[in-house]
Design brief:
The complex is a heterodimer of chains A (191) and B (152). With 191 residues, chain A is mainly beta. Chain A has one helix spanning 2-24, and strands at 61-70, 88-90, 94-103, 115-121, 128-129, 131-135, 142-148, 158-159, 163-168, 173-177, 188-190. The chains are: A mainly beta (191), B alpha+beta (152). The interface between A and B is large, with 53 and 45 residues.
């Protein structure tokens, strides 16, 4: 009897813990782009988060993001070609984030006319404003958003979890992170 | 009278210069398009995952993509899509597959560059059609050094 009581008690505690974990698991369809729901409890064996598409399930603003190399300040040595895509940067180099996006409600591109603010958040640094401007040449010249920064000589090595944040004049937010992608796909700082 | 003529000529000249300057101002063309039904983003990387836009003949490039229906605000999964592929000139279409990468699902495809592939920029596109018959496409931002390029 005492053993049975003990087993029932353990089962009850396990049930309460499971219910608590389930309550913390985000419901499917309520993610926003770039959110940090990877912190889902491990107890949830297969949840909505497992099937979560990149970069999220629903969004008000969608962003294309890549990284290219900019011209670094001396004494850092510039790469042979500028503006080539990369995900690995060395200390002293100058990565440049390129972004364009659309407002899901209107289908229109994000421009300086409909964006209230846009910035790049890099751990340990002040936010870097994204600039709207022309790129490319000739008939292919197009406008999109860019922001660059110099990787300091003492910047921590490893994956650099940057974040791109947009707010539109109509109050919508777009956030892009590389969360959830394998480490080798994410921007990484090497010595 | 002479003064009046000089002044008039100056005004005409100024107007002409102004008109020329205005005509020379390039239009502000936002990327990707003035209006979109389905947003598509595609990145390229090596098979090891490092972002790159350079590839050699015989090696492979991985396309990773996502798309979103702007009417429903929903990121498209394999349940929403009729087709989604990468189109490369003079090559068979490269089908994108909805698969897990890290802890997320996104659309990926691998293209092995044939030995006969011309050197230079690969002007690939990605094209998607949803089950709701909405279309989207991706083209690379027009910056030569950042576009997918076969180097040798």
């Amino acid at each position: 009897m005492r053993y049975l009581t003990y087993v029932l008690g353990v089962a009850l505690v396990a049930g309460v813990l499971a219910a608590s974990a389930a309550a913390q698991t985000p419901a499917q369809g309520t993610f926003s782009l770039g959110d940090q729901t990877d912190a889902t409890p491990l107890a949830a064996v297969r949840t909505a988060a497992d099937d979560k598409p990149f970069p999220g399930t629903l969004g008000d603003v969608f962003l294309y993001v890549d990284v290219v190399n900019g011209r670094p300040k001396p004494p850092a040595v510039a790469r042979p070609k500028s503006c080539t895509q990369l995900s690995i940067v060395k200390r002293g180099e100058r990565p440049v984030i390129r972004v364009y996006g659309v407002d899901a409600g209107t289908g229109e591109p994000l421009t300086s006319a409909n964006v209230k603010y846009a910035y790049l958040k890099i751990p340990g640094l002040a936010n870097v404003k994204l600039n709207w401007g022309p790129h490319g040449s000739g008939s292919g010249r197009s406008f999109f958003w860019t922001a660059g920064w110099d990787v300091a000589a003492d910047y921590p090595l490893g994956v650099l979890p940057f974040k791109v944040v947009f707010k539109t004049e109509s109050g919508k937010f777009g956030v892009y992170t590389q969360d959830g992608l394998p480490p080798e796909y994410r921007l990484t700082v090497l010595p | 009278m002479k003064k009046l003529l000089t002044a008039s000529a100056a005004v005409v000249a100024l107007l002409a210069v102004g008109a020329t300057a205005w005509a020379d101002t390039p239009p502000e063309v936002p990327f990707p398009a003035p209006k979109t039904d389905v947003f598509v983003a595609v990145n390229t990387s090596t098979t090891a995952g490092a972002a790159t836009n350079f590839v050699t003949r015989g090696s492979s490039v991985v396309f990773s993509a996502f798309a979103a229906d702007l009417k429903t605000r929903k990121v498209l999964t394999d349940k929403d899509v009729k087709y989604f592929y990468v189109a490369i000139p003079d090559q068979p279409n490269v089908k994108l597959t909805f698969s897990k990468l890290g802890s997320r699902f996104l659309w990926t495809a691998t293209w092995t560059v044939p030995a006969s592939q011309p050197l230079g920029i690969v002007p690939f596109k990605a094209l998607v059609k949803t089950n709701a018959r909405r279309y989207g496409s991706f083209v690379q931002p027009p910056v030569t050094n950042a576009m997918l390029t076969v180097t040798g």
